Amino acid sequence: MKTLIRTLVLLALIVWLGAEIFFPVVAAVTFTQLAPDTHAAGTIVGTLLRILHGIGLVSGIELLALLALAPAWGIFKARPALAAMILVLVMVGLTAYSQYGIIPAMEKDRLAVGGVMDAAAQDNPARIDFNRLHQRSTHVEGAVLLLGLVSVVLVAGAGTKD
Hints:
The chain is built from four helices and no strands. The chain is an all-alpha fold and 162 residues long. The longest helix has 35 residues, at 78-112.
């Protein structure tokens, strides 16, 4: 049972962090390959970001449940598991904020300029806001990745003796 729970915890972290690490690579390749058509590239990357968030939310909920139960089952020590849970909770919160706060606001800005951000003037308020939100989104994803890496360290040290 201990091995199964540990495996599920590590798998959830691996899937989520792997997606977080791979996402910027996919985004860069997409924008490079579709360079003249940044609208199409942005549409693809936006869809992939929503998938990434779905992965994060499911993995995060799984992690929270497993980390909450693991100390009671003698699988993880309580303090490191609690610390990891707090970080995962923040990660889930940031992911939800990006999915349900930042992305809809960016979409609203995109529609406000007629659908294609590159067609809007640089000083267009909607384009300025879109760029600000894009920067915020990048910082949020970076924070999720950093917190996830710290969570890995905490989980690695949380195990009890078999």
